[in-house]
Structures are given as C-alpha cells and as structure tokens.
Amino acid sequence: MRGGTVAVVGGSIAGCAFASAAARGGADEVVVLERTPGGLEDRGVGLCIQNDRYAELEAAGHLDGGIAWHRLTRRRWLVKDGSDLGRLMWDQPFPFRSYHWGLLWSALRERTPDTVAYRLGATVAGVTAEPGRARVRLESGAGEEYDLVVGADGYRSVVRDAVCPGVRPHYAGYVCWRGSFPAERLEALGRPAAAWSGTDAVTVGFPGGHCVLYRIPGPGSDGPVVNWVLFAAPPDTALELDDPTSVPPGAVTDELTQHLGLLAEQHLPPYWAGVIALTPAERTFVQPIYDLETPRRATGRLLLAGDAATVVRPHATSGAAKALQDAHSFESAWQQSDSWQDLLAGYESARGDVGRALVSLGRRLGRAQVERTPDWTSMDTRLMTPWWEQQLDGTGGFGGHPL
C-alpha cells in the first residue's frame, strides 16, 4: 500500500518511530503533532533494551550502534545485612544495553526522514473517527483531516479516549522515586571503583519495595551517569491522584523527599543509601506507577501506539522496546496491506495480545517485588531462581517478547 496522509499525535520515542515507519511505507504526507513548544523535557532518566531485542530492532532499521549506550552484563540482588554493600542474594545474567532517554530520543528524532513535518506546540484536544477518514481538533480550534491518525501520546492519550472511551490507566498503589547524577560523584563515597562494576545493575530488596541502580551514558563527553529507581508505597497523605500524573523535578514535596530519605536509611546498605543521597533535588522526581491494557488498538482510522495502547509497569524492562516493536509491526503491516482496513487489522493481530501479556507480566513482577515482597533476608540463589521463574511464568517476556 502506498499514499495517504498520516498524523502522529505525540513526538516522543513512539511518535518518532511511527512517523519514520509511515514515511518509509510510502505515505504522501506524515505530520507529527507534538504539544510541547520546544524540545521534549529530558529528566535524565535511564532505560534498558535487552540484547536480543536490540539485535532484532537493529536488523529492522529502528536502532543502530551509533546511538550512545552502556553495556550491562549482570544484575546483583542485594539485601541489607549490616555490611557496607549488603549481602549478595543472587548474581543474575543481565544482557542489556542501557540508554539515556534524552540521547535516545534525540537520535530517533534526527533519524526521522526530512519528509516528516514535525510540528511543535500543536496540542491536540480531541480526535474523531469518521467514514474513510480521521479528524483532529487542535486546542487552537483548528480542525485537520487525515487518512490515519496514530495516537503516540502516552499514558494520558487523547486518541485513546476515542478508540477506547472510558479506559484509563490504573494506579498500582505505589510510586517510584527516580534520580540521576554524574558517576564521577561516586568518588565522594570513599570506596574504590571496584565496589560497583560499571557493567553491573544492582537491585536492593527491602520490605515493601526495592531499589534498582545502574549506569547510563552521559550527554556529550561528561562520562557515565548513575541512574536509580526506588519503588515503594508513598505516605498516605503525600499524593492526590485524580488523574494520571507525575511529580517533576523541583516539585517533589518535603514529605516525599523525607520519606525517600527514611526508606534509604532504614532499608538500604550504607553505600547504596549514600548513592541516593548524592542526588541533587533538581535531578529527583516521583512517578506513580500505573498500568493499562486496552481491549483494542484500532477503530476506524485511529490507531494506538506505545503507552497510549498499553502501559506496562517498569519492572518488565520493556518500555522502549515495546514502542519500537509496535512501530516495526505497523511498518510490516503497511507493507503487506492493500487497504487501511488490512493495515489496522494486521497491526492489531501482531501487537494486541503481546501488549496485554506484557501488562500481565508487569503486574506479576510488581506484586512480587513491591506489593508482596518475600522475606529478602532469607533469600539466596537456591530460592531466588525459582522465585524469579515463577514471576515470568514461562512467558519469556522480561525485556519484551521477541518480534
């Protein structure tokens, strides 16, 4: 199939990937409608892509080795035991590449074909599916028509409201605190570099949560960056979550800041509590954890992509891979279709069940690692291996399912 006009609502990772896929597919016009007036906000957070998923996406043309990345090989599970670093519960293979969100997005944005019109400050207020077309209503009041509208506008998607009315992300009952800072600051902790190998991801378990720490590439020539994520329930009075939201850097309340410090002091070995304490306030934010599965990804001439279609808890380590795999399936369906109806049906068939399976996996991992944590002090390799396999339940979906 060739020709037609496509609007992509949202210009983040999924948006750039879908715009590129539509352009390569031969669309006459591809427009990205991004609500932010300037560059997308970069909070310096990290993400990981499993090595096999990266190889598939590289072969499909969605990633390449020129995008800055950091090599991870092992995941060391620790628990507080009175020592500085904690007791090793399990040394798990962890064949992943870590990325800096901002650097990955910038690379995908730069690789978007010049034929794509990337419009900043274009806030979409609503979309409707009409016979043989889709209509976009901008906040400015203007209306535009396209052959296809792709909702790549994240977990608060406007397009999803039209595809699946009333379907909204579900709050899991806990949050994560996130932070990052240049790895050179670790010298202030007074331990040799060997205390934490650069290729190790570290997970510290504690009652009601855990903390994950790993390195990601730094911008420019600044060297690697420490990236950490701590999952736990917030104080009862700390958040009002009427709508899906996050608490950006600079807006984290004293109550949330103090609770993070209390969690680190009580539950993390001294070295890892020190890592958290090195993080400046302007590099710390809070993200409530949600998940979402939709009954469908398409209706009429509307299609959902990335987190607009499925929100998976971060424990599955699949977010970026999921968005890029969605784009790959979209492009494959485009190449194999003779009509828009065939395109949307092929995409739904390829990604619907996979997305719902990832949501289910994220929930199981969240229950096991936050909501119903084991007695970490009793865990060792003999117990950790079957515990982990029980969460995966034979899905093989940790890091994303194979294409």
UniProtKB/TrEMBL annotation:
GO terms for MF: FAD binding
Domain FAD-binding: 299-359
SUPFAM superfamilies (UniProt xref): FAD-linked reductases, C-terminal domain, FAD/NAD(P)-binding domain
Pfam families the UniProt entry points to: FAD_binding_3 (PF01494)
Entry protein name: 2-polyprenyl-6-methoxyphenol hydroxylase-like FAD-dependent oxidoreductase
Organism, as annotated: Kitasatospora atroaurantiaca
